[in-house]
Amino acid sequence: MLRRSLISSALLCAGCASFVPALAQSDKTLKIMVGVPAGGSLDAFTRLVADKMKDELKQNVIVENKPGAGTRLAAELLKNAAPDGTTYLMTPIVTTVLAPLVASKLNYNPVTDFAPVGVAATYDFGLAVRADHPAKNVNELIAWFKANPAKASIGYPAAGSLPHFFGLLVASESKADTVQVPFNGGAPLLSALLGDQVAMAMDTNYEWLANTKAGKLRVLATSGAVRSKVLPDVRTFREQGFPGVSGTGWFGMYAPAKTPAAEIARVNAALNKALHAPEVIEKLRTYAMEPGGGTPADLAKLMETDTARWSPIIKASGFKE
C-alpha cells in the first residue's frame, strides 16, 4: 500500500514538474526592443502590437527603446541576449538586409545571430516633387531632368537607406545625370523639398501624405507591385514602364539565435493574431503600411530574396560605410 502511494506521489510530482515551466513562462515579461527613439511609426506600431500580443500570450509584454547606430545597437543587444524566449527585436529591412551589404564592419550577422519570428508590416516608397513642378509623371520628370541638368537632384533621408538606392535606380532608369543628396532624416528632407532645395525626393509614402493632401506636394510614382491604398490615384513605377524601380520596405520581428522553436511558434501565432486586429490595421494605414504575417520561414525567405535583390545594386553603386 505504501509502495503504491509513493509511486502515485512520484507520478503526480512528475506531472507537476512538466506543468511548472508553462506557468513560469506566463510570469516572465516578454521584451520587444526597437532601435529608434519613442514616438516614431515603428515605436508606435510596436507598442500597439505588443499590447495585443499580451492578451494572446497571457503575459506581460513591454517595448524598450534602444536607439543608436541606426538600429544596429538594438541588433547587437539582441545578439547577446539569452535565447530564453523573453527578448525580441522589431526592426526594419535596413537592419537585417541593407546593413550587411553596406557596412565595412558589423557586430552581428542577422543570418546566424537571429531567429526570424515573422513579418510585421510592409510599406512602399514614393517619388515626390513640389506641387508646382511641371512634371506630372515619371516620363515627364525624365524629360525635365534632361532639359534642366543643373537642377536634377534627388534627395533621400539617409545614406545607405532604401530611398537612397531607389534614387539611384530612378537615375539609372532615366539615363540622365542626377545629383544624389542625402539628408539626416525625413524631416530635413521634407523641408528641403518644400523649400525647393532639391527638385525631387524619395521616401516612404507616409512622409508625403500630409503635404500631398494639403496640395503642397505631388507624388509621381510609388514603388509597390500594386498601387498604394493611401495613394490610389498614383501609378506605380511599373505601371509607368519602369519595372526595375520596384520593391517594398518591411518590419520584421526576431529572437536571438537558438531560441526554442516552440517559443518562436508561440510568439509568431500571437503576432499574427495581433496583426489582424482592426485597430492595428487602422493604425498601420495611418502610417501608409499594410499588415504582414506568415511564418518565421516567410521572413527568412524575404530576407534572402531582398538581399539578392539589393546586393548587385548596392555593389554597382560603390557605396560603403
Q: In words, what does this structure look like?
A:
With 321 residues, the chain is of the alpha/beta class. The protein has 12 helices and 11 strands. The protein has helices spanning 2-27, 41-57, 72-80, 93-102, 110-113, 138-147, 162-174, 186-194, 205-213, 261-275, 278-286, 296-317; strands spanning 30-34, 61-65, 87-92, 114-123, 125-130, 153-156, 179-182, 200-204, 217-222, 249-256, 289-293. The strands form 2 sheets. Strands 2-1-3-10-4-11 form a 6-stranded mixed beta sheet. Strand 1 (30-34), helix 2 and strand 2 form a beta-alpha-beta unit. Helix 2 packs across helix 10 (261-275) and helix 4 (93-102) packs parallel to helix 12 (296-317). Mean pLDDT is 90; it is low at 1-25.
* Helical percentage: 40-55%
The count of strands amounts to 11
Secondary-structure element sequence?
Answer: HEHEHEHHEEHEHEHEHEEHHEH
First-residue to last-residue Cα separation: 76 Å
Annotation field: number of helices = 12
Oligomer description: single chain
| Low-pLDDT residue spans | 1-25
Mean pLDDT: 90
Task: Classify the secondary structure makeup into a structural class.
Answer: alpha/beta
Major sheet strand order: 2-1-3-10-4-11
Proportion of residues in β-strands: 15-25%
Approximate shape: globular
Largest sheet: 6 strands, mixed
User: From the alpha-carbon coordinates, what is the Rg to the nearest angstrom?
Assistant: 23 Å
